[in-house]
Predict the structure.
Amino acid sequence: MSIQPFHIDIPQAVLQDLKERLAGTRWPDEVEGAGWDYGTNLDYLKGLVDYWQNKYDWRAQEADLNRFNQFRANVNGTGIHFIYERGKGPNPIPIILTHGWPDSFYRFHKVIPMLTDPAGYGGDPNSSFDVIVPSIPGYGFSDRKAMTEDAVADLWVKLMTEVLGYETFAAAGGDYGTLITRSLAHNYPDLLIAIHLTDVGYPDSSTDFSTLSPAEQEFAGFIQKWWMEEGAFNMIQSTKPQSLAYGLNDSPVGLAAWILSFMNARASIDLEERFTRDELLTNIMIYWVTETINSSIRVYYEMAHAMPAPDRGKRSSVPAAVAHMPLDAPLPREWAERNVNLKHFTEMPRGGHFAAWEVPELYAKDLQEFFGGFRK
């Protein structure tokens, strides 16, 4: 399995083409007073696109990303892009951090230095990690190949053990990253030190609702309402991703509107109280310059049409931590206990679905506290 250093260097022609497409946007109308109820707000998006055209500096963001050690490895025939930063403490734990949709490896850019060099942030050098942040296949600078969570977990094991040489490792993630991390724990329990999650899945048709506690019933009701109001993207991406991709791959404004709609869907706080404009646009740019929106949404189709494993949903024995963010669904501790071997549960004081990106200090601290009990 080959491994090569990787450096982000987007051709100037791609950036010039983007500018021309932004300038030629044909804007739709909007219902008066719509806010975000119909999707991404028109006035907000016009302001963001103006910033994108006139003030946003991709080259500065590109340089910032290139401060990390990045690589590409061919793992079982699939090209995987990943950040690999070694810990500066005496006994770092190797940890693989997995993003979701519609974010990217960029979700973790703030926490990487906090985890590799805790002493540099006023922490204990003994709590450092070797941090591996891959781009899921179909996303970013990995190959445009849509894969199920189990298939990705198989690649992560090869990456961690055969490419990087670790005998055991820790794993963490959220959203699609939760599914992949739980798959690692379920299918490779002897390799996993422990796992850390920011969500643990949701009640569905396989759930015996008669066994749920009052808090779990409330959680289930919230999820049902949320899916009715916000879940259309899942149905579209699970059934007709190709039809959607033509517009999103051709129009940067269409791509931004689609991504921002779902980044804003789970929170009552304005987007730019959680992320800067540069951060929002850099995440969108990773999809745009790599042309991976189609393969990323095609993941939903592959998962929806995969034959479920006979023991799907079985609770793993691997020790787990769950951090609940207040802007995310109202996850009760007992639901976490039902789904994972829970050893650590944190009610975060702030933050939402993209925890490592929104509240990196809190996220890094929770990982350090939980995994501290597993250091040799």
